[in-house]
Specification:
The protein is mainly alpha-helical. The chain has a domain at about 5-55: Histone, subunit A (Orthogonal Bundle). The protein has four helices and two strands, in the order ααααββ. It has helices spanning about 5-15, 20-25, 35-55, 85-90, and strands at about 95, 100. A two-stranded antiparallel ribbon has the order 1-2. β1 and β2 form a beta hairpin. The mean pLDDT is about 85.
Length: about 110
C-alpha cells in the first residue's frame, strides 16, 4: 500500500487539529493566519468525518466508474474528404506568392 494511504489512515484515526494544519501548510509553503488554521482544521475534520461515514456503505455490488455520466466517444470518423483548394484558401490571405502564403521574415 502506498505511503499516502498509511498516512491517511493515521490521520483519519485522529481528528485534524491546528498543529497538523500548520505542518501541512509549512510543507506546502503556505502562510496561514490563526483564523485560517482554525477554519481549515474544522473543514478538514468535517471532510474526514464524511469519508468515515462513506466507508460504512456496502459497495460490494457497485461497479467502479470513470465518470458519473454515461459518456461515449464523440469523435467523427477519420475519413478523407475533398479539401477547399488552393485558390479558396489563399482568397483571404493578406499577401501571397503564387500558391503560397507570404509572411514577414523572422530570421536574418
Amino acid at each position: 500500500m502506498p505511503r499516502f494511504f498509511f498516512w491517511m489512515a493515521e490521520v483519519m484515526s485522529t481528528k485534524i487539529d491546528a498543529e497538523l494544519v500548520k505542518k501541512v501548510a509549512k510543507l506546502s509553503r503556505l502562510e496561514l493566519t490563526e483564523t485560517e488554521v482554525a477554519e481549515f482544521a474544522g473543514q478538514l475534520s468535517a471532510i474526514l468525518d464524511y469519508v468515515e461515514k462513506m466507508e460504512q456503505l456496502d459497495t460490494t455490488d457497485v461497479q467502479p466508474l470513470a465518470h458519473c455520466l454515461p459518456i461515449s466517444n464523440c469523435l467523427r470518423d477519420d475519413c478523407a474528404k475533398p479539401s477547399l483548394g488552393t485558390e479558396k484558401i489563399l482568397e483571404n490571405a493578406p499577401d501571397t506568392d503564387g500558391d503560397y502564403f507570404k509572411v514577414p521574415k523572422i530570421l536574418d
